[in-house]
Design brief:
This is 5-formyltetrahydrofolate cyclo-ligase. The protein is an alpha/beta fold and 247 residues long. It has 9 helices and 12 strands.
Length: 247
């Protein structure tokens, strides 16, 4: 029998207690942050070997703890990196090739170190300068083999996808990678919501696997009346998008 969401979450949290790394702000509260874990560098190396990564020029990488090594590689490989700040409170940011000095990539890849190299960028500016994002990378508290991410709440990546979709910066051909530890992949019986952005590939320290995704990526954009309380007031790109769509 497949687990329900609570059973799956409990199993994942127990696994992360063994393999995960605490966060300086949230400690072991895995419902509040995407944890780094033993072997995350190996997952990043797997991605670095993929032709899709090697050929891409623009990457969206979430500000998750387990993305540190991937960000370091992206700086070394002269990729354009677009990301958001925690909770999207300061909107989208860009790190262009050459901004991070040679030899500083490791420091710049940390969530504190990267602050010295971020440049704010609006949704319209992303569209005008880059037009299209080929690859997106996100962490997940827990993921199913079908590519559904769950466990953390808030749904910031789903919101980021929706905003980029509305601006036609991503489309159904954009590839989404979900990164996590092997213990975070669980066979749980969870019904996806209309806005859940299922990932195309799951990358762990030991493998890359094409998901058994049966649903298309969301095309609904922002569902304004489903936003959590305070999101519109605290997330500048939502305000920008609303003005663009409503004049």
């Amino acid at each position: 029998m497949r687990m329900n969401s609570e059973e799956a979450r409990k199993q994942v949290w127990e696994g992360l207690r063994k393999y995960g790394k605490p966060d300086s702000r949230f400690h072991w509260d895995f419902a509040e942050f995407i944890a780094d874990y033993e072997g995350s560098d190996k997952g990043a190396e797997i991605i670095r070997q993929q032709p899709e990564y090697q050929n891409a020029t623009v990457l969206f990488i979430t500000p998750d703890n387990n993305m540190r090594k991937l960000r370091e590689y992206a700086f070394q490989d002269n990729k354009v990196v677009i990301m958001t700040t925690y909770g999207i409170r300061r909107g989208f940011q860009v790190i262009r090739p050459g901004i991070v000095p040679e030899g500083k990539e490791e420091v710049a890849s940390t969530l504190d170190g990267i602050e010295d190299y971020l440049s704010p960028i609006t949704l319209q500016e992303i569209k005008d300068e880059f037009d299209y994002i080929e690859l997106l990378f996100t962490g997940g508290s827990a993921m199913t083999p079908e590519g559904l991410r769950f466990g953390k709440g808030h749904g910031y990546f789903d919101l980021e996808w929706a905003m980029l979709w509305e601006m036609k910066i991503v489309n159904s051909d954009s590839i989404v990678y979900g990164l996590g530890h092997d213990c975070q992949i669980v066979d749980a019986d969870i019904e996806p919501s209309v806005f859940d952005t299922l990932v195309d590939y799951i990358v762990t320290p030991t493998s890359i696997t094409k998901t058994e995704r049966v649903l298309e990526k969301p095309t609904c954009g922002i569902i304004w009346d489903m936003l959590e309380y305070g999101m519109f007031d605290n997330i500048p790109p939502l305000q920008e998008l609303y003005k663009i769509k409503n004049g």
